[in-house]
Amino acid sequence: MTAPVIGVLALQGDVREHVGALVGVGADARPVRRPGELDAVDGLVIPGGESTTISKLVDIFEMREPIDKRIAAGMPVYGSCAGMIMLATEVLDGRPDQRGFAGIEMTVRRNAFGRQVDSFEAPVEIAGVGGAAFHAVFIRAPWVERVGPGVEVLGRVTDSPTGDRIVAVRQGNLLATSFHPELTGDLRLHRYFVDLVRAA
After folding, report:
1. Which residues are the active-site ones (predicted)?
2. What is the number of structural domains in the chain?
3. What is the CATH classification number for the domain harbouring 167?
4. pLDDT at residue 153, as a whole number
């Protein structure tokens, strides 16, 4: 079976870690910074980082319209942490000029769990992914406050400083998590996404 080609949006954030995780589950993974590079991929990862910075860089590198078009055409996309914010239709506590791709019908609260010093780790079970709960790493992470009728809640964190929160969702070919699986060595979520890309 030919390895799916999956790009990692390489404007800011955990690019190298996501590339390594994708390669580890059999994908042909590569950084993507330009529209021509986006044309060559079957799926895209939007990594963690700083969502307002990513939003600005998407415009500077002229990537907004190409990514919007590919999402509308059904390209699978996975967003982790800031990537989740970039995929949301509504962002609370963001900057007024911050714009994402509005792919998943959800309301996300930016930096919901607190600042860098409030980062934490907790177990999260993900629907559709077998095995033990993920050891999830939350760093200045968002949470999901509301989802639309077409959004499947895949995971919640119950052992967090603020109680029970939605931290993993899927809508069609779009997947998002509040946490950073690329930092843990647990490749199950990346394998789940690669399988989604193959199916698409």
Report:
1. 81, 180, 182
2. 1
3. 3.40.50.880
4. 98
